[in-house]
Design a protein that fits this description.
Number of helices: 3
Radius of gyration: 16 Å
Oligomer: single chain
Largest sheet: 5 strands, antiparallel
Order of helices and strands: EEHHEEEH
Strand content: 35-45%
Number of strands: 5
Strand order of the largest sheet: 1-2-3-4-5
Helix content: 25-40%
Structural class: alpha+beta
Distance between the termini: 28 Å
Shape: globular
Length: 125
């Protein structure tokens, strides 16, 4: 399992009661580096208690995605990528249901610039 994030498209026949609306699951995300996930959850300026952070990390570590959107936005601090996700954890006796989680990723321009640079280098070979 390479990397800290792996995602797959899949079809889920049914979803548990109480999950976000929008039909059955559309896929899943599995995070292999739990420490990176905990750092991400702790670095968003939110005052999450240890128990809430642990529950979120467990759910997002193996997550059935029901809705996912991504938008590029700009504010007075610059451009950023905003990702919104809804779904539920796939493990444990009472998996956490997340109706909407918003993640803002700043510095995305640097990441895109690097990806384009690598793509250009690979095309030259």
């Amino acid at each position: 399992k390479d990397g800290w994030l792996q995602s797959h498209e899949a079809s889920v026949a049914s979803s548990a009661p109480g999950t976000p609306s929008g039909g059955g699951g559309e896929g899943w995300i599995e995070v292999h580096d739990k420490q990176a996930l905990m750092r991400m959850l702790g670095g968003g300026g939110q005052d999450l208690t240890g128990q809430i952070q642990d529950q979120l990390a467990q759910a997002l570590g193996d997550f059935e995605v029901q809705k996912l959107s991504a938008r590029f936005l700009t504010d007075n601090q610059g451009s950023y990528l905003q990702i919104q996700i809804a779904g539920r954890g796939r493990r444990g006796p009472d998996p956490l249901v997340i109706k909407r989680l918003t993640v803002n990723i700043r510095g995305i321009e640097n990441l895109l610039d690097e990806a384009l640079r690598i793509q250009r280098m690979m095309q030259r070979k």
